[in-house]
Amino acid sequence: MLLWLESEEAPKCLTLVIEIQPINNTKVLKAVDSGVRVQFLYPEAGKKSVTESHLLLVVEDGYVEQYHILLAKQEGYRVVSFQQWIWKCVKKRFFGMSRSIVHGRLLFQVIQNPDRLAKDRVAEEISWVQWDGDTQRLFFVTSKVRQALCSCGLLADPALHSTLELPLELPRDSFPSMSLLFCTPGSMCVCYSQPVCTNEDMKYTIAFVHRGHYVVVYLAKHFLHLINSRQQDLPCFSLFLSGEDIRLGPSELDSTVLSLSQATLLDPQKGHIYEADLSHSFLLDLLRRSGPDIQRLAALHCLLGHVGPDPDVERQVVEWICESVMPLAAFDQIQEFILASLYRTIHQQSPSLDSMEVLPYSSVFDKKDQPVDLSNIPGVRCGSELLSPPGFRGKARNLQGYWGELRWNIERIKYFEAVPNPRFRTSIIQTEYMSLLAEMNSEDKKPANRLRHIEENAKKVLAMVDTWHLDKKVVPLFHGEDQHQRELIGLMVEKLREHMNRHLPRLGKNKIEKLVLSYVAKLLELVRHMLENMWCKYKLGPQVLSVKQPGGAAEWAVFHVMTRILEATAGLSLPLPPGYHTLLAVLGMRCLPRHTFLQYVDHGLLQLTDPFVSRLLTDLDNSRANEELKFSILKRLPESMEQKICQLWDHPITSACISRTYVRGLLEKQDKTKGGSSLLERDKSSRYPEFLPLTYLAKILSDLESQVLNPFEGQENVDAKFVEETALKQTMIELGFEDT
Fold first, then answer.
1. What are the Cα distances from residue 349, in Å, to 309, 352, 515?
2. Region class of 607: left (phi > 0), else alpha (psi between -120 and 50), else beta
3. Taking every annotated instance into account, which residue ranges of this chain make up the domain Gamma-secretase-activating protein C-terminal (predicted)?
């Protein structure tokens, strides 16, 4: 077996390669005054026979060498007898090597030509180095050409080596506290800080090679910062804690804490390893506190975007929103709840960088001016700048696994930073909808094909929603026809699909279709979930749909939350579930004074849907007050809807309206059989009700009059002078200036 030992008793640090058999076959690799670290490389996975061992030697003078040691197989040596002794040596002082490396098969190898060991110079002029055993890559900071972080992949075949280079502007003396962090596949960041001094500011820097996860920066008894690398440009999405809020672990950690893989922390002095996680109860407590809005916004996104699908957490967040339903000074909590939850949903289905870069993350980005409350962090000064993009050198195209994903993510970041508006903006939905309405109301050919496609999109989404939580649907939604919302739903599917196909062709059309439908369906489900929470809290039942009785405190609370949901979704141009406006109008009818209700209708806050008006006309009697209300409702309806609704109310006025419509239809039918055209064109300027038979007779006489021959028609030779003199003489006679 090959083993490294460091001699601490000699004047120099000796790095040796000792061959266990034959005895005393020792090769001195390095004898220097400074420290030396050595790391064996893993053999190729699945390779039965190892003919060469690779050894990294890191010298604190500032360079790294790689030794290539040829091996020859020799049978007959016991494995167990040497392994226990070797493991004791390894545990005493070994740099970055796991126990799995000390494998029995290596004990059967002996060195070929120990006097001539081949070596390569891997790096020079380095000031910091770190080895990643999982990916077998060496990370180091060099200033040979320019100050940069480099990553060198050390594989068995040198021809496949590749190097990642990230330009950095490092402060002096940062390397003793510099570390490299790996998150999930395809992500990486570099953290470094200046030495901590008493009564002075602590300064640290995080360079993100690829964004997408949280990074914890912790200084015992001082602060704990949870940096959101997905949105590192805006500090309002990062959580900055100090004082009593920085408790880490079951007990306070006073010593240096090292970050390990898989979200674990190592306390080297106590010898403890902790698994790091976000505390749901603590983040919920931050929401309920009367603290700064910037802390609440960060806590909300931590809960919704990174905790994971926890129904209990989501329920408590909804309760907090309903308790403090009015928007906060710096942000709208309902808008943030919707967008952050949708963002998490797609991330769970497609955790790659691509989908995360094109979907809306927060409503803060749509504001022209960022609120001051989201810029000022008590006790913290922070800023961001765009670094030069990292680059790969060597056989970068052959990268696989982690590094292949990282390279792809880096290229995608360059793309998203170059193209305009890569993130989907929901405001385009309302713009497209207004354009669609203009097309429908124009005299040109109606966009029938597009309307059919939009309706098909809406049907797919609503069919998906109908299959969810069939046993928990206590809120009367998704039952009534609401063509306006159906068109918005279908239009959102269309525009989001176009956006994702434009920027994410790698996902494929089928995957994008599934993500888009799931996204819009989850939006409708979130609204239903908020109402479901209110329904259960106030124990509302089917009787809430009755307009006969005035609403109580429970109905008023639900109406207030629903108007806030309407305001929040309208601000983002998002659709609502079909039936939402009907339910809101019923609650408004029960909770508001009638003149206030009509004002809400006139200002567009409440909509007079078919189901609501039908329920109003059939449930209320014909008392004087109710008649006035019904007439006020009817005159606010469009003509097409008015004719349909009048048949539901047994009243002389509606009977006259029905009779007038029936007579008009008969006369128009008769007119068409005679070859006429538009015989009954209604005079919309008249404010008096029309009498259809009289109108019909007047139209016939007018047509007959137009058919009478003009006595002057056909006469070509007319004495104009004679006509003029005759007219003048007749005028003077009429005025009494001449006798007849």
1. 12, 9, 8
2. beta
3. 524-631
Answer left, alpha or beta for residue 24, where phi above 0 means left and psi between -120 and 50 means alpha: left
Tell me whether residue 725 is exposed, middle or buried, using C-beta atoms within 10 angstroms of its C-beta: 0 to 12, 13 to 18, 19 or more.
exposed
The two three-digit tokens of residue 112, written as one number: 């070929």
Task: Read off the tokens for 629.
Answer: 């209300």
pLDDT tens across 8-43, in order?
444 445 556 665 555 556 666 665 556 777 888 776
Contact 188, 390 (CB under 8 A): no
Which tokens in the block code for residue 641?
């809807």
List b or e across 76-110, with b for residues whose CB sees 16 or more CB atoms inside 10 angstroms. eeeeeebbeeeeeebeeebeebeeebbeeebbbbb
Q: Report in angstroms the alpha-carbon separations of 122 from 51, 56, 76, 158, 231.
A: 22, 9, 36, 11, 36
What amino acid occupies position 283? L
Q: CA-to-CA distance for 661 and 655, rounded, in angstroms?
A: 10
Query: Quick one: how far is CA 396 from the chain centroid?
Result: 31
Sign of CA dihedral 528, 530, 533, 538: negative
- pLDDT reading at 524 higher than 90: yes
Cα angle 491-494-495, degrees, rounded to a multiple of 5: 90
CA distances for 359 relative to 1, 462, 529, 668, angstroms? 54, 21, 22, 54
pLDDT one-digit tens code per residue, 536-558: 889 888 888 888 889 999 999 99
